[in-house]
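User: Could you check the structure of this?
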Amino acid sequence: MTPPPPDRRPVLAALAVVLRGQEVLLVRRANPPDQGFWGFPGGKVEWGEPIFRAAERELLEETGVSARARAVLGSQDLIQPGPAGAAGSVGYHMYLVGVACDWQAGEPVAADDALEAGWFPVEEVTPDRLEMSEGVDLLLAQALTAET
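Assistant: Sure, the predicted structure tokens are below.
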């Protein structure tokens, strides 16, 4: 595999997985990657920013909800191909880290990179009921088992 140019590296992102009773907070993404799909609020981790702080910050920026991060859940690569015809090219590469967060205050209002935001009953967060980003249901299952 050809090494990437020096300015092309995977982007680290934190996803805030917030449960409130039997509901989970989701946002519908306004921008690529996964534009139009439902997923967890989140975004890029800033240089020198701890992953918990990034999850809390991105959650507040996208929804106005505040929460306390408490546990790292699963992670996954999000890799999208580059332009058609460019063999082996990568257009976008994010490394997503799910962070379980305990809701503290606020009702979701879509802001920043979110088109919509809201609480969803946990049992409705399935691929056959909701157009969502890959792995949302798996991270949710991990968050449910990590609850204390």
